[in-house]
């Protein structure tokens, strides 16, 4: 048994994978992987740089299935995403292509040399609708959705190896359409994909996301160099178009690697080191309540697993959620779990079970784990409203593990929380982020009721002048002084023809204006102004030479 130090941790990134699969026993499994890495030593900072007005970066990175060797079929809905912190050039990932046999015309994707291109994402539309995006298989083929009398099909094939997409078009009745990439500049991404023992998986997938959020999966079969099936040290080389990328790796039987961030320069080589781990399987049975025991319908439950590494003073927590259909005997099997000191529980729409404590070793399976779905759970109830006391519907309310939306009356309930102090936040576009610390009571006790008040964001306008005349094209940043220390930037924006600038959403507080280059946090001589909730503020003019 192990005591888990899980409180006071800040979410660093969030990954979800809603693609359905089947485990070896034939159960339907949907990974909703909230790989929430939380680290007690890095809960966040009062000083933040925000690239766009009032925004917080997000980096949902859905993982999609690797391309199959047959043309495509419609899959399940594209994964949803959630907010997390982002590195400087990690962009919002677009919905991934869904492999399968689409049943419609086949797009053949070729490189400049006429060879098939595997893993290209084929996006197409008719005159009336957008078709499902498909990845090309090893033969370079991607089968689109069936198309009737809908006019011309137009689209593009995209791949991280090529800077420009390959355009294509086809008319009604075409069974095969060719998309060919043109020659362009490229650089090399090189490095190693290996486990902690220095060994590589026999096969690997490289997930590459560019600045626009476009994701390409490159299999080791199409690497320009790969020794995973020979020397097994994991040395690889891949040709990519110049640009900034977020890179990670996965392999069957391994936990995906952390993300690496790299810039590819034409005719040069960039090095990354990607560490994958051998995953562990967790299996056992769930003790079900009477209503589920008598149910004749398939029983799908959500399994929540946390693994903790590091020290007691500086733990790092990885969280994962998996929706899985139980076996006829209420059995389950979760595959590819991270090693570490772990806890596992199960829930449905209304009930949450108690945590089971276990330890997973790398690549070692845990069998005979007993879980129970219980009617009692810990929760927090409350309401989200604005400064005038009016309820705010559809606001997002979060704790460290649970996320819900408020209903039409602004009411919410967070279920299945750990007892003790929990941070609860609420957000909605157009409003400041709300925060409250709540003492969560043990199961069976009345849950606490909380009120989260969100203040409408204000806005600001101003002018930049040169000798009394408006100065166009000048970069403007406004900097908020955070109560208790620290600063937060909003912008940058550029002035218009008459030297005017505007930032539409700002939190209430004290600000100063910085123009041009230089240290944005140096407020010496900078004009100041105040922003009030929901009000438009005119900042003082800034005269520059």
What this model shows, in words?
The chain is mostly beta strands. It is 1% helix and 44% strand. The chain contains one helix and 44 strands. Strands 1, 2, 3, 4, 23, 24, 26 and 27 form an eight-stranded antiparallel beta sheet that branches. Strands 36, 37, 40, 43 and 44 form a five-stranded mixed beta sheet that branches. Strands 7-6-9-10 form a four-stranded antiparallel beta sheet, with no helix packed on it. The longest helix has 4 residues, at 290-293. The model is unreliable at 1-28 and 40-93 (pLDDT under 50).
Summarize the model shown.
By secondary structure, this protein is mostly beta strands.
Q: How would the global form be characterised? A: globular
End-to-end CA span: 69 Å
Classify the beta-strand content into a percent band: 35-45%
Write down how many β-strands occur, each being a DSSP E stretch of 2 or more residues.
Answer: 44
- Main sheet characteristics: 8 strands, antiparallel
Oligomeric assembly: single chain
Structural class: mainly beta
- The DSSP helix count reads 1
Calculate the mean pLDDT score and round it: 81
Short descriptors:
eight-stranded antiparallel β-sheet; 44 strands; mainly beta; disordered N terminus; 1 helix; 545 residues; five-stranded mixed β-sheet
Task: Chart the SSEs and their pairings.
Elements: E1 10-11, E2 20-22, E3 28-32, E4 38-39, E5 106-110, E6 121-125, E7 134-135, E8 141-143, E9 153-158, E10 166-170, E11 176-180, E12 187-194, E13 205-210, E14 215-219, E15 225-226, E16 235-240, E17 243-250, E18 254-255, E19 260-264, E20 269-275, E21 277-278, E22 280-287, H1 290-293, E23 300-310, E24 315-325, E25 331-337, E26 340-347, E27 356-360, E28 366-372, E29 379-386, E30 396-398, E31 403-405, E32 411-415, E33 420-427, E34 434-440, E35 449-454, E36 458-466, E37 469-470, E38 475-481, E39 487-494, E40 500-506, E41 509-515, E42 528-531, E43 536-538, E44 542-544
Parallel strand pairs: 5-11, 12-20, 22-28, 29-35, 36-43, 36-44
Antiparallel strand pairs: 1-4, 2-3, 3-24, 4-24, 5-8, 6-7, 6-9, 9-10, 12-16, 13-14, 13-17, 15-16, 17-19, 18-21, 22-25, 23-24, 23-26, 26-27, 29-32, 30-31, 30-33, 33-34, 36-37, 36-40, 38-39, 38-41, 41-42
């Amino acid at each position: 048994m192990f005591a888990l130090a899980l409180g006071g941790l800040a979410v660093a990134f969030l990954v979800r994978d809603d693609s359905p699969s089947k485990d070896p026993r034939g159960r339907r499994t949907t990974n909703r992987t909230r790989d929430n890495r939380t680290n007690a030593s890095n809960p966040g900072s009062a000083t933040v740089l925000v690239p766009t007005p009032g925004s917080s970066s997000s980096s949902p990175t859905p993982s999609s299935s690797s391309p199959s060797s047959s043309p495509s079929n419609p899959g399940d809905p594209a994964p949803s995403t959630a907010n997390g912190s982002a590195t400087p050039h990690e962009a919002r990932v677009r919905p991934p292509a869904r492999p399968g046999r689409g049943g419609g015309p086949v797009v053949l994707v070729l490189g400049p040399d006429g060879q098939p291109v595997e893993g290209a994402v084929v996006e197409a539309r008719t005159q009336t609708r957008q078709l499902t995006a498909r990845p090309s298989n090893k033969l370079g083929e991607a089968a689109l959705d069936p198309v009737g009398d809908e006019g011309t099909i137009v689209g593009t094939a995209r791949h991280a190896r090529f800077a420009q997409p390959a355009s294509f078009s086809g008319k009604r009745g075409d069974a095969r359409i060719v998309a060919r990439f043109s020659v362009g500049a490229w650089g090399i991404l090189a490095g190693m994909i290996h486990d902690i023992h220095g060994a590589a998986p026999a096969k690997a997938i490289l997930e590459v996301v560019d600045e626009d959020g476009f994701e390409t999966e490159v299999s080791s079969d199409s690497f320009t160099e790969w020794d995973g099936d020979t020397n097994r040290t994991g040395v690889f080389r891949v040709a990519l178009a110049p640009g900034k990328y977020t890179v990670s790796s996965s392999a069957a039987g391994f936990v995906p690697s952390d993300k690496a961030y790299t810039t590819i320069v034409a005719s040069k080589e960039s090095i990354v080191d990607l560490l994958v781990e051998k995953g562990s399987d967790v299996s056992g049975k769930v003790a079900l309540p009477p209503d589920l025991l008598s149910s004749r319908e398939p029983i799908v439950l959500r399994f929540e697993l946390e693994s903790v590494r590091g020290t007691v003073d500086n733990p790092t927590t990885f969280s994962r959620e998996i929706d899985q259909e139980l076996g006829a005997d209420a059995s389950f099997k979760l595959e590819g779990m991270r090693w570490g000191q772990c806890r596992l529980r199960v829930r449905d729409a209304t009930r949450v079970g108690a945590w089971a404590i276990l330890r997973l070793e790398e690549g070692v399976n845990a069998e005979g784990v007993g879980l129970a779905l219980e009617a009692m759970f810990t929760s927090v109830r409350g309401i989200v409203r604005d400064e005038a006391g009016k309820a705010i519907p559809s606001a997002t309310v979060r704790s460290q593990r649970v996320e819900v939306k408020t209903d039409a009356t602004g009411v919410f309930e967070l279920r299945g929380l750990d007892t003790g102090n929990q941070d609860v936040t609420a957000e909605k576009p157009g409003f400041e982020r709300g925060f409250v610390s709540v003492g969560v009571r043990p199961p069976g006790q009345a849950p606490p009721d909380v009120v989260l008040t969100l203040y409408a964001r204000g806005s600001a306008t101003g002018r930049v002048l040169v000798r009394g005349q408006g100065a166009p094209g000048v970069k403007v940043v406004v900097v908020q002084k955070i109560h208790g220390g620290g600063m937060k930037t909003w912008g940058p924006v550029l002035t218009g023809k008459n030297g005017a600038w505007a930032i539409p959403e700002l939190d209430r507080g004290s600000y100063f204006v910085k123009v041009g280059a230089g240290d944005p946090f140096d407020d010496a001589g900078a004009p100041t102004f105040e922003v009030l909730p929901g009000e438009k503020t005119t900042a003082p003019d800034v005269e520059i030479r």
